[in-house]
Design brief:
mainly beta, 4-stranded antiparallel sheet, 3-stranded antiparallel sheet
Length: 160
């Protein structure tokens, strides 16, 4: 059951691609496959933050595919092409770009602000230690991601 204030969608799949520049997060591209949990859902609110706990700063969000930016306030409202009906699926993509590259990232996290994220496949290897292959790290959360929780991965950079 979603908590009060949760967005009226269930996320079937959320793919967050973080493009790093050295040890800094330059871009975050987020693809969402959602299902409306009521009639008339016409958009999705997003907010992208950079920085550490307690001193996070907003970074600009852009509509990339199957949505449009309708407000430049925080959070940003991404409008859909049409109003969705209950249980109707929808796919859209947004991007956040951090132009202030000056802080090494020790973690990347995603806040679940909707009805939850569907269960995915099991990750390869240990659930606590992620392999780096060809400069990429990939992880699928095997269980359901619950509303109002935050999920992410932390980096253990080698000493210089």
């Amino acid at each position: 059951m979603p908590s009060e204030g949760a967005q009226p969608v269930f996320v079937e799949r959320m793919l967050v691609t973080v493009v790093m520049h050295r040890r800094m997060a330059l871009r975050r591209i987020t693809e969402r496959d959602i299902v409306a949990r009521r009639d008339g859902v016409d958009g999705y609110d997003v907010q992208a933050l950079t920085g550490w706990a307690g001193n996070g700063a907003d970074i600009p969000v852009k509509a990339i595919w199957n949505c449009r930016l309708s407000a430049s306030s925080v959070p940003v409202r991404l409008r859909f092409r049409r109003k969705l009906k209950l249980d109707e699926p929808y796919h859209f993509v947004s991007e956040a770009i951090d132009g202030q590259l000056g802080e090494e990232r020790k973690w990347i996290s995603v806040t679940v602000d909707h009805h939850g994220v569907a269960q995915g496949g099991p990750p390869a290897g240990s659930p606590r230690l992620l392999d780096v292959g060809d400069g990429f790290v990939q992880h699928t959360f095997a269980g359901y991601c619950h509303p109002r929780e935050e999920y992410g991965i932390a980096f253990c950079w080698p000493r210089r």
